[in-house]
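Continuing the batch. This is chain 6 of the set; chains 1 through 5 are on the previous pages. Same settings as before, nothing changed between runs. Recording input and output for traceability.
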Amino acid sequence: MASEELAKKLQSRLAAAEETEQRPEAEQSTISAQFQELDHACGDTPSELATKLNRRLDINDGNAPSRATRVFNAYTEFKEFSRKQIKDMEAMFKRYDTGKDGFIDLMELKLMMEKLGAPQTHLGLKNMIKEVDEDFDGKLSFREFLLIFRRAAAGELQEESGLMALARLSEINVSTEGVMGAKDFFEAKVQALSQGSKFEAEIREEKEERKKQEVEKKERQAAFKQLQSAFC
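Output for chain 6:
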């Protein structure tokens, strides 16, 4: 219902915009002021609102083109992070992806920032998403979530930005047991970059751990069978 009302408002706004070219300058100034007031309430520019309206109308009519889903391998694309760090980031992402659709939308990001102790305004949340939203869908994919930490580590985020607050406050999830037990997220990144073979070493360790578990399982099964035969 709310989306329908917003759509009606936006349609009226676009229609009014077309009429302003034929109106006196005084009337145009009044309309412009009204548009600015609506902009302030919605937090979007006229072009953004028009794009969203057209997208919504296409969806309702069944004419919206499907968005291409980008398939990526986090371990090979984000080599500056250890496997442990990426798994921690993924666990955090899934924890706040309450819709279980593989994305963190604006409301889920709002909940995340509140839980982290750094609540943001509605406009602040939109700006956070916009800064790493490469496909312009208005939400965060896991890859875009990882970009936050990449840009934080590279010093590409503003000190007081919401994204920097997210990266800092979630540090315990990505670097408490980071590369060689580094205490700081940025130190962890430097150490990861200096160890080109660490990725392969971690894979070998995981394989060895799985082998060890299999051996222990077989030993337990053999012991159980031996105990069972003693009572037969």
